[in-house]
Amino acid sequence: MSNNSENVAFYGNLYSYKLYTRPTALRMFGSKSYKKSKSSKHQENIQKMLKILALNDPLTTWSMAKIQLFEDTEAVRVKEKEYRRMLVGRRDRGKKTPGLLDIGLVVNDGIRYTKGASNLYRLSLHGVLYCLDVLDMTEKEIDIMAQKYAKVLPFVFGRWNSLKSHLGSDVHRLKVLASGTFLDNIQISKASNFPVYEILTYLNVKYQDDFETISESDLADQISCWYYTTFLLPSQLRSKKMSSVNTAKWKKIFERDLELKDWYFGFVDEAEKFYKARFTTIRKLKKI
Fold first, then answer.
1. What is the spatial distance between Cα 228 and Cα 246, in angstroms, rounded to a whole number?
2. d(C-alpha 33, C-alpha 50), whole Å
3. Per CATH, the architecture of 14-128 is what?
4. Residue whose C-alpha is closest to residue 98's, from 106, 107, 86
5. Domain boundaries, the chain
């Protein structure tokens, strides 16, 4: 799933997040915020580090430590070494314990040349989802993270303020994805009069070969397409309501953003072509 280099982290598609990254991270780093449940000191430190990365531009390990400990140079030096171990993992008696880079929650984002070269780090998109799922972030903190990661998830975080004005509290739908829900739930086939199940199924098919590794832009597209499609689901699966968001509001999101409209409905066109081809394949059965 990943290698042990401090400069590289590998992560896969949303299925990889659901089946590997999320359960591994929950087991190793905590399934709830350390503020709300009993956690080990290691889990608490990991979560604090992830929160720092969520709320800031890419940072060196020294910069992370300074944010937490300010001007206590000796304490910063100790904390920096701790952060390095949390990133790359550690080896004890020949056994390797994976770090945040190995699991795929953090990625290297370049090098800062200040008194020598230092790696810069930020959350991966898997890391963003884990933070939304576990860290019990406030709306203000999520707003800050959206600003810091706007270029990483441009069709969602890059339009965050506009989406908030249209959707209100529904803008936080990513928390549902972060919890591993509605990615492959067959129940949604009966939950909406819109082709939500069909779009999400095609989305999984499109990226099915990217379980081990995926480009960040492709993963951002997969996440973003899921995000806009699931607004067409009712807030409760057994509800008779058409969708969780008024369809007029949903349409206005695209009417006022032509780039977003072209991108999203490009996926819809791809899905339509995919199902037409599958229907042709199904009809071949009648000719046997």
1. 13
2. 11
3. Orthogonal Bundle (1.10)
4. 86
5. 14-128, 153-280
Give the distance from CA 275 to its chain's centroid: 27
pLDDT digits over 221-270, tens only? Answer: 999 999 999 888 876 544 545 555 678 888 889 998 999 999 999 999 99
Long-range contacts formed by 108-116: CB under 8 A, 24+ apart: 108/6, 108/7, 108/8, 108/9, 109/58, 110/58, 112/60
Q: How far apart are CA 76 and CA 84, in angstroms?
A: 12
Between the CA of residue 121 and those of 96, 108, 207, what are the distances in Å?
A: 21, 5, 26
Q: Where are the beta strands (DSSP E) in the chain?
A: 90-92, 95-97, 106-113, 117-123
Record the pTM. Answer: 0.89
Cβ contact 167:249 at 8 Å:
yes
Closest Cα partner for 16 from 132, 104, 101, 123?
104
Write down the residue that tokens 């807030």 correspond to: 235
Residue with tokens 């509001």, as numbered in its chain: 249
| Tens-digit pLDDT profile for residues 208-233 | 999 999 999 999 999 999 999 988 88
